[in-house]
Amino acid sequence: MAWWWQTLLSIGAAVLLIWLALLIALLAAKPDRERLSEALRLLPDLLRLLRRLAGDRTLPAGVRIRLGLLLAYLALPFDLIPDFVPVLGYADDAIIVTAVLRSTVRRAGLDAVRRHWPGTEAGFAALSRLTGLDR
Question: Disulfide: which of 23, 27, 30, 133 matches 128 by Cβ 3.0-4.6 Å?
Fold first, then answer.
């Protein structure tokens, strides 16, 4: 029975180490306040974009699954970093969304993202600037 406790402690330690590594990565990549507030203004259009992209049957299945998982993560009541932590609380969501959108552009192309964007051209330009989609 002792091996169960060792296994459980090992898994717990591994999860804690992974969480700490993600926390350090988020600290290193944290956006400044201006970029974060601009990203928050785009949030309603961004959520509609993610839902539209996830439902587009012309996109590769891997992209749609990734987008569906991202929407599920955003809907969960808990995050990697709790939202009450100043700046970083919301930055983890922004960083994860950016990573998934960049991955989507690499696999499906920028035109697919532009086609599903529900907001204005200025909003899409801001989204591209914030996430680096135009690179």
Answer: 133
Predicted model pTM: 0.66
- pLDDT tens digits along 24-71: 665 565 555 565 566 667 778 888 999 999 999 999 999 999 999 989
Q: How far is CA 7 from CA 4, 12, 16, 18, 45, in A?
A: 5, 9, 14, 16, 44
Distance CA 31, CA 97 (A): 13
Domain positions in the chain are 31-131
Residues contacting residue 107 through CB under 8 Å, at least 6 positions apart: 59, 60, 62, 63
Query: How far is the C-alpha of 93 from the C-alpha of 1, rounded, in Å?
Result: 40
Whose tokens are 């509609």? That residue is 48
Find out whether 63 and 108 touch, Cβ atoms under 8 Å: yes
- Which residues are within 8 A (CB) of 102 and not within 5 positions of it... i.e. 6 or more apart? 131, 132, 133
